[in-house]
Amino acid sequence: MTAPPNIFDSTLHRRRLNRAAPLFHRADFLKRRVAEDLVARIEAIHRRFAVAVDLGARDGAFRDALATSAAAAKIDTLIETDLSEIMIKPGRGVRLVADEERLPFAETSVNLVVSSVAMHWVNDLVGSLIQIRRALKPDGLMMISLLGGATLTELRQSLLTAEESLRGGAAPRVSPFIDAADGADLLRRAGFALPVVDTDMVTVRYDQALDVMADLRAMGETGALTDRSGPMLTKAVVRRTCEHYARWFSDADGRVRATFEIITLTGWAPHRDQQKPLRPGSAQVRLADALGVVEQDAGDKAGG
Predict the structure, then answer these.
(1) Which of 61, 76, 86, 299 could form a disulfide bond with 32, CB atoms 3.0-4.6 angstroms apart?
(2) Adjacent-strand bridge partners of 79
(3) Three-state SS annotation for 110-130
C-alpha cells in the first residue's frame, strides 16, 4: 500500500493558525462568504440533520451564518472542530480540537459534514473523504469547499519570476491546490454517491501586493510545506515580487487583484433508496426527438 504524500507540515500549519487567531477576524471575508453559501445550500434541501459537523471551523463563520438563516431549524446539534486549539477555544457549543486527517467520529454517527476553506491543507484528501463517508449515516450529506488550482495565481507568477530573476531559480512557496476536474474522481474514490463538483471564482482587490500577503498571514494561510529546503525570502525578493504584481495585475485605479477559486465537493453516503442512474439503453425517448432535430449518421456533416 502506497503511503499518502507528505506535502504539508501539519504541526507548522497549526502554529500558523495559532498565530493568526487574534487577527483572523480582520481577514475572514472568504471564510464567511463560503459559509453563507453552504448554509444557502442547506436551506434548499428538504431534510433535517440531527448531528452536523463543521471541520476547520476557525472563528465559527458557519455557525454564525446558520444562526441567522432558516437552515438553523434543520440542525439539532452542531459540532465544530479545528486543528488550532486557540482558534477553537473562544467558541460556543460543542467544539473539538481535531485534525481533518484523523477524525474522531464513530462510524454512522453524524448526518451532515461541512467544511469551508480548510481542507486544502490535507495531505491525504481521499483518506479524509473516506473517513467522512464512514462517519456519515446512510444517506448523510457532505459539502466541503476548499481552495482550487487558480487560487493566488497572481502571487505565484509574481513570486516565481522575482526569484528566478534574482536567484536564478525558485523554491516552492505557495501551496498546491486541487483542480476542479479532479473533484468528481476524488468523491467516487471515497465511495460517495451522487457526486457534484462546482466552482466559484472570487476576485478581491487590494491597495498593494503587501496587503494580500498580510491577509494570508491573518488567515493562517501562509506556507506550511514539508519541503522548506529553499532559501528564505529576502526583502529584495519581496520587493521585486510586489513590483511584478503591480505591473501585471493592477487595474486602472492602481489597485491589484487576487484570485481565489472555491471548489465545492458534494456527496451523499450511499443508501439503497437513493436515486440511481438509468441503465444504458433504457431510455424511453430518442434524444433527437426530445431535441426536435433530425438524426444524422456519424459520417455525415451538418448542412452537407
Answers:
(1) 61
(2) 53, 94
(3) EEEEEEECCHHHCCCHHHHHH
Average pLDDT, whole number, for the chain?
Answer: 89
Mean pLDDT of 237-244: 96
Amino acid at 236: A
In the block, cell 434543520 appears at 74
Q: Which residues contact 76 (CB under 8 A, 6 or more apart)?
A: 48, 49, 50, 51
d(CA 267, CA 277): 15
| Distance, CA of 90 to CA of 57 (rounded, Å) | 12
Is the C-alpha dihedral spanning 69, 70, 73, 74 positive or negative? negative
User: In this predicted model, what pLDDT tens digit does every residue of 8-46 receive, in sequence order?
Assistant: 999 999 999 999 999 999 999 999 999 999 999 999 999
Could you tell me the strand order of the sheet in which 110-116 lies?
Answer: 94-97, 75-82, 49-55, 110-116, 136-147, 256-268, 193-206
Burial class, 61, CB count within 10 angstroms (exposed 0-12 / middle 13-18 / buried 19+) = buried
Confidence of residue 293 (pLDDT cuts 50, 70, 90): low
Record the cell numbers describing residue 271, joined without a space: 443508501
Q: For the chain, list the domains and their CATH numbers.
A: 10-272 (3.40.50.150)
* Residue-level pLDDT at 299: 47
Q: What residues have CB less than 8 Å from 273, skipping those under 6 apart?
A: 139
Whether 100 contacts 75, CB under 8 Å: no
Helices (H), the chain: 10-20, 29-43, 61-67, 85-88, 125-135, 153-167, 183-189, 209-219, 235-248, 287-291
Q: CA-CA distance, 184 to 177, in Å (whole number)?
A: 15
Q: By the 8 A CB rule, do 224 and 16 touch?
A: yes
Which pLDDT score is estimated for 219? 96
